[in-house]
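Researcher: Let's continue the batch. This sequence belongs to Transcriptional regulator, LysR family, and it's 299 residues. Same format as the previous ones, please.
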Amino acid sequence: MSNPLQRIDVKTIALFCLIADNHSMSKTAELMHMTPSAVSKRIHELESITQLTLFQRLPGKMALTREGEALLREAGYLVGSLDRLWGTVQRLRQRQRHQVRLLANTSSIIQFLSRDISTFLHQHPDVGIMLTETDSDDVRRALVENRADIGIYFAAAAAVGLEGGAYNADRLVLLVAETHPLASQQRVWFASALDYSFVTFNLNSAIYKCIAAQAQLAGRDLNVTMRSNDFSAISQMVRSGIGVGILPAQTLDQVGLRQQGIRAIALRDEWAERVLYVSISQEAQALPAARMLYSYLLK
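Model: Same format as before. Here are the structure tokens for Transcriptional regulator, LysR family:
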């Protein structure tokens, strides 16, 4: 059996909610740029279809009946859903005007993205990119939740359920003070660094999670003396002899970390070479600007 409420349009529900809010048929008509008789006709139709008396017609005032109050709660949910739907439409329209939300981890921004975005924007000057820096786990969550259009993150493989592929790769190196016992080595195994204190990133960073996991696999504890999410700060603390650090090799030149008093030593471990992945959210696949940037980053 068909639902008789399907004969009621959204505007009638909105009028019902407005009258309930301001207690006036004439004021509602003015707000909606309608005649009072047109508003009254719609409310009568609503009462006829529902077979309920929704308002008490009092002198100078419209008051909800008990049935009207019950219907208002449900109607409010419907109007709220439509408001949220309209908000989504507006966001999609705005983003169709060539706005792309890009989330990326710190390493990718410092090592690769600044150059790639510059080249892309030179080729596509009408596209705007809103870049947000966050950790790799949050990038993946944001893509699944459609809080980002494109994301770049470290992982063993592209995020499940998302279109994605390899974007770039980097290699981690061990950073030590030039007076450190390991400073004379050209290449070392990560396990040999576990005899010393570490200056490393905060708990949610990809590098910390990686080296903590490798230390656990080696049956060793990772002795962390200090933490920071700033590459330069970690470099300075290593130089001061506070501990050893693990950083991507390319960041040493790009953020000016090669300096006197510090040695960068290659790690022999295979896991030291990391792959960056780029993925596009399901919602963003319909956005031309997002598709263009995604395709460019996959090259």
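Researcher: Any comment?
Model: DSSP finds eleven helices and twelve strands in the chain.
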